[in-house]
Amino acid sequence: MTSNNAMTSNDTRTSNETIALLYLQDTVSFNERQVPDSVIHYTIAAAVAMGLSLIGIVGNIIVCWFLFFRIQRNKYTVYIMNLAVADLMLLTVTAVLMMVNINTLVGSNPDFKGNEEFITFLEIIYDLSSYSGMYFLTAISMERCISVLFPLWYRNYRPKTLSVIMCVCLWMLGCTESLIENLTCPNELFRRQTPVCTGVEIMTFTMSICICLPLMILSSVTLLIAIKKIFRDRYPPRLYIIIIAAVFIFILSVIPFNFLWFLLYFRRLPSIQDILGLYFASIISAALSSTANPYIYFIVGRVWKQKSNNSIHDALHRAFKAEEDEKEDLKCEKEKTSSNTGETNSTSCNSDKTQSSNDTNKENIL
Predict the structure, then answer these.
(1) Given a cut of 60, is residue 291 above it in pLDDT?
(2) Which residues cross the membrane (predicted)?
(3) If you average pLDDT over residues 343-357, what whole number do you get?
(4) Which of 165, 174, 338, 350 is the 20 to 30 Å CA partner of 80?
(5) Exposure string for 181-201, b = 16+ CB within 10 A, e = fewer
(6) Which residue has the higher pLDDT, 209 or 116?
(7) Helices assigned H by DSSP within 150-186
């Protein structure tokens, strides 16, 4: 009992997974004598997170397949494709981590050979995908916001390869941040709260809470205002709705736990149960955010008035269509319904779409 309390007072968050695994090992021995129900509760939480991750893995694999091989790419689908890859990586690592946690709680061999090295590797991939996904979401929301605020500049002067350059830079930024967090501050240094580790904790807090969060909120508010103006005349672009929904879910499910982990580093939660509860809640919330994204694409891209012809390909194609393409489609539909000479209008619409497709192909994207 005394040793457990001492460990609780000295340990803080290094990477969530390492500390949680240490506490899980202590909890198993602690609860075998006193509170066996907590082991069941944590096992159920790990199973829920793993099941949620498997559902998200299926959705993100479908999105990746269609975006890579079936749907014509544009400046927005590049971001969405990289976001789907980051979500797929995060959910895969989450499922494996939950297996390790369940093995630690109820397995016959919790301390298997190479356990620490394997957990460290998973931590690096988990943080890489988590940070990169956050940056991709921030980038696409900010780019859409800029297109609303400065439409002339965006239409005439935006670099054609901006999406690719941004995605490469954001992957590198996420990788660098993950390596710094996991390799420069091992478990022992985090327990002592060394200046280097304190600096790393402040860095991650600044990137997520002080930079990405305000940018997401600013862009979402801008898009909401744009939707309010557009909605008077026509249905708003589906991409606006996708961005706002994804950002909203991310802010509600992920950002609060990032803030709590930051407070934990300096203030410490009083008991092992509180830390483990926060760990599993943060894992489930991150898995929920990554799982929700592909299904948001399907739901927003679906045409609910139609009972048929709602394939996944068509839903994703409509969801990620650029705003100018949506305007062209609406223009064509109005011309077809308002004129009896539909053949001439259809020909002009098809020629406009062909020209738009050729312009899109000129962009050097992934």
Answers:
(1) yes
(2) 39-68, 80-102, 161-180, 200-227, 239-264, 276-300
(3) 45
(4) 350
(5) bbeebeeebbeeeeeebeebb
(6) 209
(7) 151-157, 162-183
